[in-house]
Amino acid sequence: MPTNDILGFGVIGCGVIGPWHAQAINSIEGVKLIAVCDVIEERAKKLAEEHGGEPCTDYNEMVKRDDIDIVNICTPSGMHAEMGVAAAEAGKHVISEKPLDVTLEACDRVIEACKRNNVLLAGIFQNRSAEGSLRIKEALDAGRFGKLTMADAYVKWWRTQEYYDSGEWRATWELDGGGALMNQSVHYIDLLQWLMGPVKSIYARTATLAHTIEVEDCAAAVVTFENGAIGVIEGTTAAHPGSPARLEIHGDQGTATWENGRVTTWKFAEEKEGDDAVAEAKKFADGAVSDPRAIAVEGHRRNIAGLVDAVRSGSPSPLPGEEARKAVEIILAIYKSAKEGREVTLPLES
Ligand SMILES: NC(=O)c1ccc[n+]([C@@H]2O[C@H](COP(=O)([O-])OP(=O)(O)OC[C@H]3O[C@@H](n4cnc5c(N)ncnc54)[C@H](O)[C@@H]3O)[C@@H](O)[C@H]2O)c1
Fold first, then answer.
1. How far, in Å, from the CA of 176 to the mean position of ligand 1?
2. Does ligand 1 have an atom closer than 6 angstroms to the CB of 167?
3. Which of 83, 141, 95, 146 is nearest to 120 (CA)?
């Protein structure tokens, strides 16, 4: 178990999201970005020049450094578990970009390796800490919605063909694990299940309609939650020009809607002081509706700072691997249902 006073970070993957991790790390007190790794050396060098850390190209070597305590995994999704296991075996805590990996077997592998090596594993789902998400969670926990009836996630975004062509791993089953669901909608599917609780069954259709890719760019699923509520998940990267991701939560005593981290409707049968102000909540930007780089660093900072606090205090991970795995399982159930043309019940066999 690492014991350095200043917690050292190593980032693997210096493409689009790596620099966000570096900036988030640099904004947290008592930690230091020690090394940044990419198989493309120029990317590691560029990130190091801009945000610090020593550039390197071999993650297996990097994770063994004594001055690194926490490893951030920012590589293609189907590589996350492999790198997480290497970091865990070297005794390092792991923070993994979404999705945790693209199969349940891989998710379980990194979860098991972190447990066995007594290190923490945290997933990245920065929307959970948005003000609007926390408000809705609090109201749900307080029972303000009454009997939960319907809950939906709508992610109608746009990605160009150039975006898909910008990396060989993108939109491949092997390394992206899917398309509009596994890459983009995963954030909001995580949020939906975090708020509503476990999904019991799924009936889905998927299609590839606006891009030349092997995975889906359109998906629609009817979801039944274990608590009896029903709802839909719609995810696409084929809806030009893209709209803010939206969640709707309804019960027989209340309704809340959420867009880009902000509560936009807040209505309950039993009103409480302060209710009027909630739908005015400050915008928490995560506006990647058409631009994959339009992401705020703040969400990542909160996610990473949560793990730092847990490491320092000896507390459990703020977003354990088992939690990060849930959205992956729901998405795999959607793919299975669409492929087999039938309702699929959870849990899936891993
Ligand atoms: N949380 C978010 O909002 C968010 C946003 C974007 C991407 N992501 C996730 O981050 C991950 C990376 O996405 P991206 O868009 O940054 O991809 P990217 O292709 O831009 O970057 C990935 C980098 O990993 C490097 N890499 C590949 N194999 C490697 C290896 N063996 N060792 C070291 N480096 C290696 C590549 O060279 C590349 O530079 C994905 O899992 C994606 O889902 C999350």
1. 10
2. yes
3. 95
Q: Among 80, 101, 119, where does a domain finish?
A: 119
Tell me if 81 CB under 6 Å of ligand 1. no
pLDDT tens across 137-150, in order? 999 999 999 999 99
Q: Both 104 and 233 in a single domain? A: no
> Is 318 domain-assigned?
no
From residue 307, alpha-carbon distances to 14, 60, 95, 169, 298 in Å are 21, 22, 8, 28, 14
86 belongs to a structural domain: yes
The model scores a pTM over 0.70: yes
Q: What are the pLDDT digits (tens) for 278-319?
A: 875 544 454 688 888 888 899 899 999 999 999 999 999 999
Q: What is the structure's pLDDT at 82?
A: 98
Distance 74 CA to ligand 1 centre (A): 4
pLDDT digits (tens, 9 = 90+) for 45-78: 999 999 999 999 999 999 999 999 999 999 999 9
Residue 41 CA to residue 307 CA, distance in Å, equals 28
> 258 and 227: one domain?
yes
Sign, CA torsion 152/153/158/164: negative
> Which residue, by CA, sits nearest to atom 14 of ligand 1?
16
Which amino acid residue places its CA nearest to atom 6 of ligand 1? Answer: 17
